[in-house]
Known about the structure:
This protein has a 3-stranded antiparallel β-sheet, covered by helices on one side. The chain is mainly α. 61% of the residues lie in helices and 9% in strands. β1 and β2 form a beta hairpin. It folds into 2 domains: 172 residues, Ribonuclease III domain (Ribonuclease iii, N-terminal Endonuclease Domain, Chain A, Orthogonal Bundle), CATH 1.10.1520; 67 residues, Double Stranded RNA Binding Domain (2-Layer Sandwich), CATH 3.30.160.20.
Amino acid sequence: MALHRxxxxxRAGRTASVSGMAAxxxxxxxxxxLGVAFRDRRFLDEALVHRSYVHERTAPLSSNERLEFLGxxxxxxxxxxxxxxxxxxxxxxxxxxxxxxxxxxETLAELAAxxxxxxxxxxxxxxxxxxxxxxxxxxxxxxxxxxGAVLVDQGYxxxxxxxxxxxxxxxxxxxxxxxxxxxKSVLQEMVQARGMPSPEYRVVEAxxxxxxxxxxxxxxxxxxxxxxxxxxxxxxxxxxxxxxxxALRGRV
Length: 252
């Protein structure tokens, strides 16, 4: 595997990959929604490129996966640091639950949806036609990529302040209500209370490269079923349990 320093091939590849891909007024609109004026909009442009778009182009392009990688690490650190400061008397286990609630895919997808990031995604035709602009995993990943782009463009301190403003409503909700309950546990309790069989989970599909898998899981408890996707088996099981809970609660 050939590695290059940032100032060499990596920078040249980034410039070639995103040059001329988006109309400037689109990025200006997104900048206003984000509350960030980018010094170099190419970082923002690259953050919006889904790999399905890259696969349908003959010219060499870069997807947003490198910025997503950076944004994921940046988000995890900033959230952990802020929780340590905000909740000095809280145990490590409870801090972990709070962090999980803030960095999970559903939370990130909600943030992305509130910013209409799905409208700005560069998607392949098939992914777009399959509802990719509203897919939870796509929204969560582009949100992380944008976080990475803000960090690279604005620097740590400015990016940290921006990220904490973005997360402020969710953090206030956590401080008021605590972390959301584990959906799998709630589903287990509910079906037991109704005398139904225990939930059984199975992986329907696992896709993507080994370091960036997406899991599709189905759960069945008697005649109640649910299905969900996630970037880990656990996350997909939680999403499936949430779907089953919605179906169960919808019954008279």
